[in-house]
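For consistency, the fold was encoded as tokens, which produced the following:
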Amino acid sequence: MKRMLLGCLLLVAVAWMVGCQKKDDTYHTGPRDNDPNARTDVKLALNWFPEAEHGGFYAAQLNGYFAEEGLNVEIIPGGPGSPVIQQVARGSVEFGVATADQIPLGRAQGANVTATFAAIDQSPRCFLVHEESGIESLEQLKNVTLAMNSGRAFSEYLKKHVPLENVRIVPYDGSIAAFLRDKNFAQQGYEFSEPFLAKQEGANVRVLPIRAIGYNPYASLLFTSDKLKKDHPELVAKMTRACRKGWQAYLREPLETNEHLQSLNPELTPGVLEFGVKAIVPLTTVEDGSFGQMQLDRWKTLVEQLVEVGLIEKDAVKPEDCFFEAS
């Protein structure tokens, strides 16, 4: 009997220990009883290595905006092929950063995610050509070698809308080395990054934005899962408010955050980060009261374009499901 009693006590003790180790996933949305300093732990997964396009999220952390909302946010850097959409959809992280076209593409594959804040209103996706090529618009893109990732929404849209006469398309390797060697070479890029690097190496660069031919998805989106939006709307609103304040602070006073970004990503230089912020500001609505808000018409157009280039089926995704206003 005594042995049986000891066994029962041991089972109770083990159960108590397991319970103590179990993650608290109830997402408290305000100060807890007897612990006003307690914060809610959440994760934010980036879609690339820390760069200027993520500056506002880090500024929210450095300036204490997450803490003001009662949040303890872990920012997880990304890299090539980071499965951010899938991570958020299955709930392994609460929030992610993506470009707008990834949202309907994910939903079409069963990843039910939705955007809540768009830091960059106008797409920074672009193509670089040499001024010596004489090419002044995407419609004139011909007689060159073009490095870009085929199969991506922006590249399929380009192929659909530009003749690309005598253009040889080669895989994009993430470098500007080939571009620097050949005046008849063009490549994909972002306005806040590759143009600076190429100019720094002495190239006469002309930047041709993809939005000039009508493809214009939001960028540096904050998104979450349908489930978190439904079950914990106050948590999503807190995160959205903090990120908006972070981006407003970063775009006005970027120096401290840029120093932090450089410590996280040593390949960045102060020059490229300074250039990046200056390039991002005109692509935003940071001076407006509507900063970060999204429009249904933009999402409708984007979904129609993805259908047009064959990346999703007609009626597979409802544009109104791709975003919402959290606060």
About this structure: The chain has a mean pLDDT of 91. The longest strand covers residues 113-120. Strands lie at 40-45, 71-76, 95-98, 113-120, 125-130, 145-147, 168-170, 185-190, 205-209, 219-225.
